[in-house]
UniProtKB/TrEMBL annotation:
GO terms for molecular function: rRNA (uridine-C5-)-methyltransferase activity. Keywords: Methyltransferase, S-adenosyl-L-methionine, Transferase. This is 23S rRNA (Uracil-5-)-methyltransferase. The keyword Heme does not apply. The active site is at residue 297.
């Protein structure tokens, strides 16, 4: 096994395309930022050196309007108030921005005045959404998301492909490094035109769709219905006819596909920080595609999963890439060869 040198950024600042800040009152003023470590004590962030500048411009202006209009801010201790979290995401290629108000109730006081100000002063905001997440919960997002103004998605571009991103859809936080990451995955898979590919944990289909031109067929899955809808819409928008995405857990769908006679030649897996489910590992080992690439965002769960996967596969190399400069986190692309 070979560890390749980490691929970094030339300018490791202003790279995050998404700000997801909690909103609270501090000394009578509206504050937005992140919690101190191991607490729910909010640290107001007027600036943030790793955020794309426009995300902070929108965030701070919206905070000022919430204070000016006296919109009720969520009080966690008393489970009262309305605005809990603000999410701002920018599409690097188009400059389009989506703004999401995450609220404690369906009601959003002064909504009309807020939307008027946004339309007048923040023309880059082309999508305004409201997500309802009632009560005390450790989850940021609720199940219900509605469109308040503009369109329901923003448009991003990557290596010649166009992607529509809905509010809950996963998209890599660092657009510059994402291009490098997916080229690394493409190189590691080295697909042939007659090979079928499984794109597990597919999100809006970015990895699978970027590989569709060198594969016979791409099948993908994700647990978020909106992301799967985006993935299939993105395939259609990019005139890709050999890719299809389904809603469901990889550990459930893959065994079903195998049972129906589908045999993948290659698989790319890009799981959340929790790593792979044991049922999915078993399904991977059972189907044993010739080509396997694992994209990891958590070295500790990667190490656990490697122990299981190396029963059937050999690790050729691990290529780390710094997707989150100024933090302790990085991503890694792992290429496997099947043992015969």
């Amino acid at each position: 096994m070979m560890f390749r040198p980490t691929i970094g950024m030339t300018n490791p600042y202003e790279y995050r395309n998404k700000a997801q800040f909690q909103v609270r009152l501090i000394d009578g003023h509206v504050a937005a930022g992140l919690y101190k470590e191991n607490s729910h004590d909010l640290v107001d962030l007027p600036t943030c050196s790793v955020q794309m500048p426009a995300t902070m411009t929108v965030m701070r202006q919206v905070m000022a309007w919430l204070e000016e209009l006296q919109v009720p801010i969520y009080d966690e201790e008393h489970n009262s108030g309305i605005v809990k979290t603000i999410v701002v995401r920018e599409a690097a290629a188009t400059g389009e921005i989506q703004l999401v108000f995450i609220t404690n109730t369906p009601k959003l006081p002064k909504k009309h005045q807020l939307l008027m100000k946004i339309a007048e002063k923040l023309p880059m905001v082309v999508s305004v959404m409201q997500n309802i997440n009632a009560g005390k919960t450790s989850l940021i997002w609720g199940d219900q998301t509605t469109l308040l103004a503009g369109k329901p998605t923003i448009t991003e571009e990557l290596d010649g492909l166009v992607f529509d991103l809905s509010a809950l859809a996963f998209f890599q936080l660092n657009p510059q490094q994402t291009k490098k990451l997916y080229r690394l995955a493409r190189e590691a898979l080295n697909l042939s035109p007659n090979e079928t590919l499984v794109d597990a944990y597919s999100g809006v289909g970015m990895i699978g769709l970027s590989l569709a031109d060198v594969a016979k067929k791409v099948r993908g899955m994700d647990t978020i219905p909106a992301a799967v809808a985006d993935a299939n819409a993105n395939a259609q928008r990019n005139q890709i006819t050999n890719a299809h995405y389904e809603v469901g857990e990889a550990e459930v769908l893959l065994p079903q596909w195998l049972a129906s006679g589908f045999v993948p030649d290659a698989m790319v897996i890009d799981p959340p920080r929790t790593g792979l489910d044991n049922v999915l590992i078993d399904a991977i080992l059972q189907s044993a595609p010739e080509k396997l690439v694992y994209i990891s965002c958590n070295p500790s769960t990667l190490a656990q999963d490697l122990q299981a996967l190396t029963r059937r596969y050999q690790v050729d190399y691990i290529q780390s890439i710094d997707m989150f400069p100024q933090t302790a986190r990085c991503e890694a692309v792992v290429r496997f060869t099947k043992r015969h």
